[in-house]
Amino acid sequence: MATPRFALTVRETFAAAHQLVHHEGACQRLHGHTWTVELTVAPSVEVLGHMPKLPKGILIDFAEVKKVLRVVTNRLDHRCLNDVLKGAQLGRGSDVMEIGCPIEHAPTAEVLCLWIAKQIRNGLPASIYVKAVTVYESPDAWCRVNFDAS
Q1: Phi and psi dihedrals of 4, rounded to 5?
Q2: Bridge-based pairing state of the strands 79-80 and 141-146
Q3: Which end of the chain has fewer CB atoms < 10 Å from its terminal CB, N or C?
Q4: CATH homologous superfamily for the domain 8-146
Q5: CB-based contacts of 135, cutoff 8 Å, min separation 6
Q6: How far apart are CA 6 and CA 127, in angstroms?
């Protein structure tokens, strides 16, 4: 029988404006969305490969994961994302993602996925990693980034 692979997902919503400075079209103007973020977490490499221990029958409390996500979404709520992301980096050292312009000029769903994942990593126990982040600009338009367990 295959080893079960658990993944937990929580969702938060926030309202924020952004301006895609280098975009040709309506999104070049300042505008807003009611954003939804889904955070999916899973057991880290240390516990993969065998059945993870489930103290009290849970991998991690949904409330704990939601609290970590809420800390990040509260930083974005009712703000201009261009201002929040000013000077931010999406990676570490040579792992910095190149997006072709200053990050504050491109607060897209793609960039938000990476930025949110980076903010959340430090708030999780070592036994849990960020498996995926999904950012919805609307119910019909979203971006999802997936991460390997390594």
Answers
A1: -65, 145
A2: unpaired
A3: N
A4: 6-pyruvoyl tetrahydropterin synthase/QueD (3.30.479.10)
A5: 35, 36, 37, 109, 112, 113, 116, 142, 143, 144
A6: 12
Strand partners, 17: 32, 80
- Report in angstroms the alpha-carbon separations of 13 from 49, 52, 60, 76, 114: 34, 30, 21, 10, 17
Q: Which two tokens stand for residue 130?
A: 């960020």
Cα 41 to Cα 61, 71, 90, 132, 143: the distances in Å are 11, 16, 19, 7, 17
pLDDT tens track, the chain, 150 positions: 566 678 999 999 999 999 998 889 999 999 999 999 999 999 875 554 555 566 677 778 899 999 999 999 999 999 999 999 887 766 554 444 555 566 666 889 998 999 999 999 889 988 899 999 999 999 999 999 999 765
Task: Look up residue 149 and give its amino acid.
Answer: A
Beta-strand (E) ranges in the chain?
8-18, 31-43, 79-80, 128-138, 141-146
